[in-house]
Amino acid sequence: METEFDVTIIGGGPGGYVAAIYASQLGARVALVEKDCLGGTCLNRGCIPTKSLLRSAEVLQQARRASEFGLEIDHIGVNLPQIIARKNKIVAGQVAGIKQLTLAGNISIYKGTGHIVSPTLVEVNDEEIPTKRIIIATGSETASLPIPGLDLPGVVNTDEILDVTKLPQSLIVIGGNVVGVEFATIFNAFGTKVTILEMRPFLLEPVDLEISQRFAQILRRQGITIITSATVKAIRQEGTMTKVVWDTPEGERGIEAQMVLMATGRSPYTEGLGLTELGMKMKRRAIAVNERLETNIPDIYAIGDVIGGHMLAHVASYEGKIAVENALGHSRRVDYQAVPICVFTHPEIAGVGLTENEAKTRELSYKVSSFPFRACGRAHTLGETTGMVKIVCEAESGRVLGMHIMGPHADDLIAEGVLAVKCRLTAKDIADTMHAHPTLPEAVLEAALGQLGGSIHFQTKQAG
Q1: Which of 268, 363, 413, 425 has the fewest C-beta atoms lying within 10 Å of its C-beta?
Q2: How far is CA 431 from CA 334, 375, 450, in A?
């Protein structure tokens, strides 16, 4: 008789493999189905490879500023093949590490596309996997817009641009979202002339509006052209160049470049699962789930990008653990109040909780305080003084509703904000907590003090 698994997970990305390891730790018999490489989009074509490229860009920018730190460097250049090789080595090492973790957890890995026959049976390459519970974690794929010219040789998606062999002299990024802006800053640092086209009036929709607007100004100073309110209608070949065109009240406008990057988001991926035959309830292309991540079919759960919502790797991992607990007989609900958003650019951006605009739209009684990195000693020693920490608090109680950061190591600093929002801490809780000196987290401390009697190391102008 074939082994019956306690839980079978379809998809080995940051939601699926984390769920598999966690279920194994809880004593379950686990099967993990993956048609490609363990780690999913995040590890193989997303988070990790882009951060590898970003680090190369950061080191390049630091080398260019060496004289500011009293250092002399004779030659600074970009070796793209070595940059790509480093990226590939890091990805391969991470994938191998995940594989080792799954083996250590006695997780049975099935290579292929999982097809759900019933809530107790999954098929992979004609092999049957009897199971008690199923967790769908199939992730997402690059979203394609109905724009003529997408198949032109100069047009690439976010997967393809990771393996370019030659730097383009010019690049148009269609999409001013997190991914688009990250690629824009990477290639701009490498010396490519970059233009961002965004259909909305501003970049980075989930980011606090004040920070987004300030960041756009910084990008322009870095040499990146930003064109907003531009809905692309076509991509055309113009000799050796690729031209992107859009309409304006004054008529058609267009811009040419050697390469065009489609950074227009991602869509839930459900191909081959057999959801229609199962009668799975959908929310457009996403699988519909409740607060326990249950689908409308008993004993089948879904997590990560395939359910839409917060399409972030760390959200998928979080959901994976909750789905496992529920599948194994516990009861736990998801809580999205404290979801961190990170933008790995220069400077970095990170946020959690309500933005100032969201608090205003909800007509909440709130107070905003901020502290600039130019008043932080550690930021000066790093030579990174651009940006600020901004805190949104409930006016009466001082409870932290949101924290938003633009500046050095914002992606690391936001962890304190995530904990504050998650645990319903107040600005006084942060202010009463000792922060090491000299460090960047002191900027968080000072922003919290701004909610109380005022920051120590920065004085705001008093109305008078």
Answers
A1: 363
A2: 29, 17, 9
